[in-house]
Amino acid sequence: MQTNTTLQEQRKAPLKRNDPPAVQAILILLTLLFFAIFIFMPLGLVFAEGLRKGVAVYLEAIREPFALSAVKLTLITAAIVVPLNAVFGVTAAWAISKFSFKGKTLLVSLLDLPFAVSPVIAGLIFVLLLGTRTGFGSWLGDHGIKIIFSTPGIVIATLFVTFPFVARELIPLMEAQGREEEEAAITLGARGWQVFSRITLPNIRWGLMYGMILCMARSIGEFGAVSVVSGHIRGMTNTIPLHVEILYSEYNYTASFAVSTILVFLALVTIAIKSLMEKNVHNHQPTQH
Amino acid sequence: MSIDIKNLTKRYPGYTALDDITLNVQKGELVALLGPSGCGKTTLLRIIAGLETADSGSVILEERDTTNLPAREKNVGFVFQHYALFRRLNVFENVAFGLRVRPSSSRPSKSEIRDRVEHLLKLVQMDWAIKRYPSQLSGGQRQRVALARALAVNPKVLLLDEPFSALDAKVRQELRRWLRKLHDDIHVTSIFVTHDQEEALELADRIVVINKGKIEQQGAPQEVYDHPANAFVYNFLGNVNVFHGRVKDGKVLVGDQLIEAGHASGLPEASDGQAFIRPHEIGVSRIRSGENDLAGIIREIRLMGGQIGLELETAAFDKPIEAEIPRDIWRNLQLSKGDEVFITLDRVKVFTGDYEI
């Protein structure tokens, strides 16, 4: 307990800085400069460009049916992908952190595959796998199931690209927590789902939500993989990033930037939720040892 | 509730955790499984609880074979070394957990749960902390809550896995006495695992000494301490001086020195013998008190509170002898470093054969 309180106190107290003030000033300035050039300026530019021809044009660009349909498709995709990957992430993290089995190390390495593979390649894999060129793809086509150049394809590609986020977030957390609490619950007579819903899930909920936020951010912004499987059918298979790209390549800069502001807005919301949650985790994370 | 363990065996790749263990625990008994780490004692406890499965053998709780019962149906209370309290639940909810997860047909009413939890928290003297979270409690307090939580489901047996080893010395001792008292009050059949011989000697009705997956000896603490069955038990139960030698005429010949060992007379002649003596069983005096006394020189004096530790060098043995004498004897003898003293070794115990820890 003593070590525990001192640890907590240390965490709350700011780090003691012994560096000379000049070093501090330079470091802070450099950081601010970097932020200004690479974050604030581009963000400002997006809004400035979007609003260059006035609010009316801006609103027109984001209210136009193709834009709205892109927003809708993006949100639908995220709404499907995030819960699915949450379930997958919890399952994978549970299996990896609480059991030992053959091939576990390989599985953990493969988990990073979507990060390692270029999204474009990921998209191509699914076009090849589910497109009309393969037996499976044409069988699907014969039965009226369209995956590539359609919403299911976009969802699948996004699923692939974002599936490590939740698991990656949870594995270290669950490994650190061990399985003693679950074992205690079992000896007290709890059934499997009771152990999960009353003990495991509450213990990982912040990590899980954090992983889901990252997953959401990525699924909204994903371009490469989605671009390959989408087919860019306006009003049908365009997500926001694809729509932005199309507008841009049509030299419709203002509309392009206007729609971009939606993405920026979604990103800011995501960051806001994330930092709110981090605050929460800091205040309420009880440490057991 | 009695526990009958029959021919329990558990193998892991590379080693045998439990090797044909048979053990009986009487109703209401408090038994200590004592052994070095890795000896299999925790595995045994976890198999009784159903957290692990044995390769063969059976566990019978009050004439019911529970070997293949899932852990949640065994109705045993388990107390973990690192408490394993539910960190997201407060003290009340931790203790209430086992009652709340029961199927609605056997679940007590809300007020019954409240009464039971409050009663148990009073019993473990933690009723003041009912709304606290585990992270707000000290180690000793957490372990008390863990005990109340285990008792809440009216377990047939209580299993404690090194319950005090994560606590500091003072709290450990306090909690140990408190547990003994609690056990005398509620009489639930209990097994606890420990590697601390002092804890086992002080707390248990019976000690089961385990080494390398086998039971070396079992019996009442005093009996095991006074009449260790073999060198391992003797060695594990406290500090010792060991002399390796050969048995000759009922004595042990170590180097050129014959050590008198009363009960060694039945030992086979010329077999390897090890003579053991505990530091506090060694007599130290200024004058020779018997013909078997050894002359020695004090090389080191250690102040250990009530006892004084002496490191004695003798011509007969190449290793120094560790002795412990009470502080007032030390003061009376006015011993200091470099003094010559006479050492009495007549309480040695001799075991033949080799052993390892």
Short description:
Chain A has 289 residues and is mainly α. Helix content of chain A is 79%, strand content 0%. In chain B, helix 3 crosses helix 4 and helix 4 (110-123) packs across helix 5.
CATH domain class of the largest domain in chain B: Alpha Beta
Largest sheet of chain A: none
Structural class of chain A: mainly alpha
Shape of chain B: elongated
What order do the SSEs of chain B take from the amino end to the carboxyl end, as H and E?
A: EEEHEEHEHHHEHEHEEHHEEEEEEEEHEE
Q: What radius of gyration of chain B results from the CA coordinates?
A: 25 Å
CATH fold label of the largest domain in chain B:
Rossmann fold
Beta-strand portion of chain B reads 25-35%
β-strand number of chain B: 20
The radius of gyration of chain A is: 23 Å
Q: How is the largest sheet of chain B built, in terms of strand order? A: 6-7-8-3-9-10
Mean pLDDT of chain A: 86
Quickly give the CATH architecture of the largest domain in chain B: 3-Layer(aba) Sandwich
Shape of chain A: globular
Helix content of chain B: 25-40%
Largest interface: A-B, 22 and 35 residues
